[in-house]
Specification:
This protein is of the alpha/beta class. It has twelve helices and 14 strands.
Length: 349
């Protein structure tokens, strides 16, 4: 079939949302993965496609420390060819990035940008059958689009988690093609929460959920009362990027000044300390146990979690929808503080 098949190594851009989500769907209503889907997934070898941002030896150590639910292989993006691998007994773990555009009067306008880490499988038999029916007389562009649709329609999504892009990437991504966006997310440091430490914790949580065959719905708000109560007497660490603010009109992310940061945390009545990403990564790698905040925004959807640095366990999660509410707000942290206080009081009875 034409050379368009060679391009399918980059075919990883499919719609979906959530900070961490495990299940048959990641939008709408939660749905459990079917038992046969989980059994098939656990029988596969998971191909983790390496990003240049985290070096190979460090990535390999993260997987050794976290991933037990399937055998795995770690390969570079240059060596990854979906068209040569989809027929094998594989599942795939890759970074994904694409933009959604609206077309009016022949003019395309960027509407949203989606970036996440995705774990999935394919129905190889169905894909092969449908690819074989494509007419070779079609143009390469039409063949590519039809093939992309076939892969999309015959994909089983297993789990995914959001990646929070920085301003420069968001602005430039809206002027790039999806292939260029994919290249950037694999070769440039463009995400606040794609660091070695946070990746380790994400994979720990995802592995635990898949191992126990538990559905995890990111849009749910909940907390572990006993563990969240412990923050009444111990410090929580706050990654520095959380204090930044986003302009809803131009997507520009900037630092809040000292007064704005104080106002943001005014309602949080317990001890906290800011930490840069390098120190956070080192602390997580050393298995030091503490709790830290993890904040993600994608378009106008926002998520706040409290995470155990040693286990990756999420002891608190909150979700804030809103058309133009692009920032973490003081009331969000005040609510977390109230949950800590109420949990402590309830456990003291």
């Amino acid at each position: 079939m034409k050379n368009y098949l060679i391009l399918l190594f980059a075919l990883v851009s499919f719609t979906g949302h959530s900070q961490i989500s495990v299940g048959a769907r990641h939008r709408g209503k939660p749905a459990d993965l079917k038992k046969e889907t989980l059994e098939r997934f656990k029988s596969t070898t998971t191909i983790f496609v390496l990003s240049d941002v985290i070096n190979a030896s460090e990535y390999d150590q993260i997987l050794k420390d976290t991933w037990t639910v399937t055998p795995y292989e770690l390969i570079s993006r240059d060596d990854f060819s979906l068209i040569n691998m989809y027929k094998g007994n594989y599942s795939f773990a890759t970074l994904t990035g694409f933009k959604v555009v609206e077309k009016q009067f022949g003019i395309e306008t960027p509407k949203s940008l989606h970036t996440y880490f995705d774990i999935r499988m394919y129905d190889a038999e169905e894909i092969t059958k449908k690819l074989g029916k494509l007419s070779p007389s079609l143009s390469e562009k039409k063949l590519e689009k039809k093939a992309e649709k076939i892969f999309k329609e015959n994909k089983k999504s297993i789990a995914k988690f959001y990646l929070f892009p920085d301003t420069d990437f968001v602005v430039t991504a809206f002027t790039k093609k999806n292939e260029e966006i994919m290249n950037s997310i694999y070769t440039e440091d463009v995400f606040f929460n794609y660091t070695s430490g946070m990746l380790k914790n994400y994979l720990q949580k995802t592995n635990a959920l898949l191992d126990k065959e538990e559905t995890y719905w990111m849009y749910k708000k909940d907390f572990d009362a006993e563990k969240i109560a412990s923050l009444s007497s111990q410090k929580i660490y706050v990654p520095e990027y959380i204090t930044q603010k986003t302009n809803a009109w131009n997507a520009n992310i900037s630092d809040r000044d000292e007064e704005e940061v104080e106002k943001l945390f005014k309602g949080y009545g317990f001890d906290y300390e800011f930490i840069n990403k390098e120190d956070l990564d080192k602390a997580i790698a050393s298995n030091t146990e503490f709790y830290y905040m993890r904040y993600i925004r994608i378009n106008a959807e926002r998520f706040l979690q409290v995470v155990n640095s040693r286990t990756g366990e999420v002891i608190y999660r909150d979700y804030f929808p809103g058309l133009l509410s692009y920032n973490l707000k003081a009331k969000n942290l005040e609510y977390l503080s109230k949950i800590i206080a109420k949990s402590k009081k309830k456990l003291a009875k």
